[in-house]
Amino acid sequence: MYPAKQMSKAVPATLPALHSRTVQAWIRSMFLALLLMAAFSPSISSASTAEELTDIEQIQQLKARYFRLMDTKQWQQWGEVFTEDATVQATSLIITINWQGRSQIVAQNSSFLLLAKTVHHGHMPEITLTSPTTATGIWAMEDRLEFPLVAYHGWGHYNETYQKVNGQWKIKSLVLTRLRERLGTVLTD
Fold first, then answer.
1. pLDDT tens string 74-123
2. 82 CB neighbour count, 10 Å cutoff
3. Which residue in 5, 48, 74, 123 has a CA-CA distance of 20 to 30 Å to 67?
4. Strand partners, 97
5. 3-state DSSP call for residue 57?
6. Dihedral through CA 50, CA 51, CA 53, CA 54, nearest 10?
7. Residue 145, beta-bridge partner list
8. Model pTM score
């Protein structure tokens, strides 16, 4: 780094205009554009890149529906986020899950959560498209389940596979791994 005195001598008089906010914003946006272009292989056409970004966004919307529909107990619609042959696996302090098929997933989860108030959050998705009709995803997660006598608070990750069925992305497999769990008493409203 140049000392301030040397820097002022090294910068030509015509460059102070580069310090304007407009020029700095333009330089930042060009730098960001170059970084984004470098992130994608030159062999990928811009059309396929747009399709891939659309697919990733659709998978993120799918997971958002998964959380919302579960917490609002809209079980028929919630079941539609899964493929017919989906699998769900999870182990926690309160339940071990190994469900096969959409109908069992919906029946078991709706029964398990019948009396619970729930809040589920998914964060920081890492989505990888593995083909035009398949993908994988990892989501950091947090959930809170309040049953009549006990409250459960958990943190961990969803590891999922997705499949595009009739133009719609669906969850094919879901494995929930817990990093931390806490049991406690129910908070009153």
1. 999 999 999 999 999 999 988 899 999 999 999 999 999 999 999 999 99
2. 25
3. 48
4. 90
5. helix
6. 120
7. 118, 152
8. 0.74
